Amino acid sequence: MAVRVAVAGASGYAGGEALRLLLAHPEVEIGALTGNSSAGQRLGALQPHLPPLADRVLEETTAEALAGHDVVLLALPHGRSAAVAEQLGDDVLVIDLGADFRLKNPADWEKYYGSPHAGTWPYGLPELPGARAALEGSKRIAVPGCYPTAVSLALAPAYAAGLAENEAVVVAASGTSGAGKALKPHLLGSEVMGSMSPYGVGGVHRHTPEMVQNLSAVAGEPVTVSFTPTLAPMSRGILATCSAKARPGVTAESVRAAYEKACADEPFVHLLPEGQWPATAAVYGSNAVQIQVAYDPVAHRIVAVSAIDNLTKGTAGGAVQSMNIALGLDETTGLSTIGVAP
Amino acid sequence: MAVRVAVAGASGYAGGEALRLLLAHPEVEIGALTGNSSAGQRLGALQPHLPPLADRVLEETTAEALAGHDVVLLALPHGRSAAVAEQLGDDVLVIDLGADFRLKNPADWEKYYGSPHAGTWPYGLPELPGARAALEGSKRIAVPGCYPTAVSLALAPAYAAGLAENEAVVVAASGTSGAGKALKPHLLGSEVMGSMSPYGVGGVHRHTPEMVQNLSAVAGEPVTVSFTPTLAPMSRGILATCSAKARPGVTAESVRAAYEKACADEPFVHLLPEGQWPATAAVYGSNAVQIQVAYDPVAHRIVAVSAIDNLTKGTAGGAVQSMNIALGLDETTGLSTIGVAP
Amino acid sequence: MAVRVAVAGASGYAGGEALRLLLAHPEVEIGALTGNSSAGQRLGALQPHLPPLADRVLEETTAEALAGHDVVLLALPHGRSAAVAEQLGDDVLVIDLGADFRLKNPADWEKYYGSPHAGTWPYGLPELPGARAALEGSKRIAVPGCYPTAVSLALAPAYAAGLAENEAVVVAASGTSGAGKALKPHLLGSEVMGSMSPYGVGGVHRHTPEMVQNLSAVAGEPVTVSFTPTLAPMSRGILATCSAKARPGVTAESVRAAYEKACADEPFVHLLPEGQWPATAAVYGSNAVQIQVAYDPVAHRIVAVSAIDNLTKGTAGGAVQSMNIALGLDETTGLSTIGVAP
Amino acid sequence: MAVRVAVAGASGYAGGEALRLLLAHPEVEIGALTGNSSAGQRLGALQPHLPPLADRVLEETTAEALAGHDVVLLALPHGRSAAVAEQLGDDVLVIDLGADFRLKNPADWEKYYGSPHAGTWPYGLPELPGARAALEGSKRIAVPGCYPTAVSLALAPAYAAGLAENEAVVVAASGTSGAGKALKPHLLGSEVMGSMSPYGVGGVHRHTPEMVQNLSAVAGEPVTVSFTPTLAPMSRGILATCSAKARPGVTAESVRAAYEKACADEPFVHLLPEGQWPATAAVYGSNAVQIQVAYDPVAHRIVAVSAIDNLTKGTAGGAVQSMNIALGLDETTGLSTIGVAP
């Protein structure tokens, strides 16, 4: 019997990507589609790339509209998920694509989001140690941020193997869809095409504490992250360049071995052959993560680079992957590692 | 039992797209992958977006390598297919993604390609009148050019209904992948980004006689096509703006009605609701065709616009669609109308 | 003594481009900068590419702010210029970058803009027959639309020489800056990158009557224009593909000769050598117009293609060129034909 | 009397940019234009954005062709400049846009370039301490690499003020023109559009020792640089994100003060107001450098970001700036800080 899934926030980029993936998921039946200002509109006018759903009309995001589903995906602005989630029964699998339930430390939440902490849900990055066990059978899942997904997967092998000092430096480039459909002047096509620019510099980006939380857990000690996000002239994709000083005795061989071991059994994380580097185009529309790592013997740093599609593995694909685990399905059901390139 | 498919020219864009689609095709098993200068290389180095085939090594394109398959897809430079095809048995389904067997008139071939005509195979644009019948059970298929696909589907409804005068004017924009992986200065990223430019102006583009052939057949009389292709700063997609003078008595309503009728039962051709216009982003990576049409009462012209993905519906998706028909499978098997957007 | 120029609407793309050009103009001193919602802001925050003006603060657009200048450039939304202009003295040169005073026929204005017609000013496309004489000493100038600039210059030589039938077909691609800084969903970078789409199809785009007006004047008889604009994934540039049926007896040679004659003495209009085609990248940031023309002997059409920078020759550069003529300066003062490429 | 300037390598991107700037230089007369495989071609076919030089024909790069000029700009592939330079008289100002004469340490050259070291010329980054004095009256100038220009200007203020530990981490994104016009598959438009990818990871990029040389000189002690370049989907621009651990006692205020002091009198280096961040679009085609800096109190790092146009300030503009100093002209002659945006 099909799993019935509702999507709240179906007009946005995260919601649209969730629908794209769910349409290809063999166990899923798509139920209610809801929106806020877009309620009453045809989905075909909002998401013209999804013809099978073109004639569906968005409902208001209410507890009534979302009732009667096995799974509810919340693709809402940050801070809105808690109020909706508490109206949904404990037997419904609620998957939050927003930030509300990612952080464990209420002080971190309050510092970065400026509102009371709503709680902490099992974290939907199955590749992290212990994550799959926490997701199995869970009825609540917090989907990671797109940057923390790329960065945690790039650096976790180094920290898990004790190869890196506990101060990481990350510079990541993101496509503009990571900023959503909000109408802001700096997101206009005329502004972003042909331009690279940073934002949230100096540790103020909200994804910083999430990276710190993940990498500290893997390292078993506090890790700091100097994180600089940049906006790149492309619609999709994150390229994260992550480095940390190598601990004494580290060699190119020990680094390679640690990454090979960490990625060996992961269905979506691909350590590339030596000499080949990640490119966001190669994971366009796919749930795959491309990773490569180098050891710089002069600067004595481990440099790991990862490429993901921010909307797929970084958002909706990660959500479906975790949903599969929670529901007891094969983790890869309905998800592909094949990108659309060139 | 799976259909075993070989791909000759697996290192190029058309070959890569064919593999992307075949990997998702439930009835297909991918057999030999061959190349020319790329023989001996790992596919993962050439097509990094296809991880399930990353460790496959390309063979030389020979009759031996291509033997023993149910289907052979030829994604070779123009003029190279005939020599390969004649070495393949009559019981093998040979699908040519090149131009060699598209034109019926040897004089057209010689004028536009400057070499002897190799012959004519059943034409793989199932939406044209009579095309499906010719493809059923066929062992040879000529896949249409990308521009002729977009243009023929946009204008055929008008000519089929007798609404348009027999002089069509077409201006089409194509993504750069339509020009293939050839190393030419004008295809460098530095040259194409931020720039639009025409080429092959004045009726000299090789896809012109193919459009003329298709539209004349539909109209039942000779149709001329003034065709101007332009190169657009994007990797994929064709937007074809096609117009013709309306015959006396034509109205907006009669135009709309003709298009609704023509598109009604087509699984891949979507006439958009009035007021919504095609966008190549909406068909990115999909086999869908978006069409819209307007009647200009002042200029007295019918203006039809179509959007396709040049590599999918315009090349490899069209090939798979025709392959399905030839093999007696459901025409839509393994093909999606869902685009990857934004 | 310097010419003192005020710019109303200095926060938008047209206003910013005007400032970029005026900063390089040896006879100009930049006076008041005004805005509407942006009044009170530093120009450096709105136009970060203009460091010499970074610390200037925008004033409200009022008659007082604009008083005391030799020239006032109005870069306002359509329909707003008349109210401002009538408060400026007859001795002030007022140059309207908006549409308000372009059309001669009030019925055309009312049909396409839906408001009362404000009047007609000398038309700032000096390359059209008679235009320079009307601009010399004029105190009011209507700057042409960006599309009409590209299209009129491409087709005027054919109509002036009596080579073309009076039904033109135009398909033009424009960069997104042509749509201005308005916050509309379809102008977001995520939507426009990687996509081509048409709009205003079927003769409804507001620039249509302006093209008709220009080409009919050149031809000496009514000319219809089937105009389809498309949005291209680039910030700047217009590529206009324009064609018309050739009159009997026209040859490739007669077409070439007509274009050579028409472009021979124009400082900004460059007919390219045969075999070379326009590219918008080549005129990026420049006031040049690249033109090429072909005669298609099968479709019997003249196909002319032009490339301009929509913000420079298509808007602010055209304004400065006409300002120079009106002020009795050399027409090319402060303007360059050199593009920024690649 | 005009300064007569020859450009060797006029067909490439660096040579073309040099010509663009020299055409606008009031003291310069452009002399011989030479090329290698492009000798004999019209410049208009190779650099269509430079109409004033369109009919010039490239000569072979020989001592004869380059004789009789006051200045010779060498825009040649790395390793080719020495042989040409030694044939030019000591009274000619020779400016090398290649790498040949940048490094002081022959061992660095041999390690990174694999050939014998040709020597060291005065270094054309006037903003570095002592650089202007070395350039005044010099007859030989080594123009810095594009990445070292962006990185050295971003970090020099921190090292000059003794604020930063001596291990820098740099991730920089470059437009594709930085890779030149070489016909390589990964530089095709189809490959670069929509994609970000790194290269030369782990300290192997040839610009690394140049950054080390510059920053160590400023710091007065050896500085290591972990440098990761990435290729961005745009034609022009470098965005360099540079960080280093702060020395004890450093505060946001002391960092700001150091950068304000360092940038105060520089005509081309603009420290942006607090809260505003660099964007490559803002310096498109200009010789300006946008810089912003933040202090991250949690990661305890100074993060400085710079944006330049890699072809202008990063190559040809830097060359003209240094030429002006060497010739005793005002340093800013013929150079603009105004970008072409949006």
TrEMBL record, chains A, B, C, D:
The annotated active site, in chain numbering, is C146
Q: Where found, per UniProt?
A: Cytoplasm
Q: Which Gene3D superfamilies match?
A: Dihydrodipicolinate Reductase, domain 2, NAD(P)-binding Rossmann-like Domain
Domain Semialdehyde dehydrogenase NAD-binding positions: 4-136
EC number, UniProt record: 1.2.1.38
Pathway listed: Amino-acid biosynthesis; L-arginine biosynthesis; N(2)-acetyl-L-ornithine from L-glutamate: step 3/4
Q: Which Pfam families match?
A: Semialdhyde_dh (PF01118), Semialdhyde_dhC_1 (PF22698)
Where exactly are the transmembrane stretches of this chain?
none
Matching entries from InterPro entries are given as:
AGPR, AGPR_AS, AGPR_dimerisation_dom, AGPR_type-1, NAD(P)-bd_dom_sf, Semialdehyde_DH_NAD-bd
Q: What UniProt keywords are attached to this protein's entry?
A: Amino-acid biosynthesis, Arginine biosynthesis, Cytoplasm, NADP, Oxidoreductase
Q: Which reaction does it catalyse?
A: N-acetyl-L-glutamate 5-semialdehyde + phosphate + NADP(+) = N-acetyl-L-glutamyl 5-phosphate + NADPH + H(+)
* Domain of life where this protein originates: Bacteria
**What's this chain's function?**
Catalyzes the NADPH-dependent reduction of N-acetyl-5-glutamyl phosphate to yield N-acetyl-L-glutamate 5-semialdehyde.
Tell me the NCBIfam families matching this sequence.
Answer: argC (TIGR01850)
As for family, the record states:
Belongs to the NAGSA dehydrogenase family. Type 1 subfamily.
Report the protein name in the record.
Answer: N-acetyl-gamma-glutamyl-phosphate reductase
Species this protein is from: Streptomyces thermogriseus
Ranked from the top, the taxonomy reads: Bacteria, Bacillati, Actinomycetota, Actinomycetes, Kitasatosporales
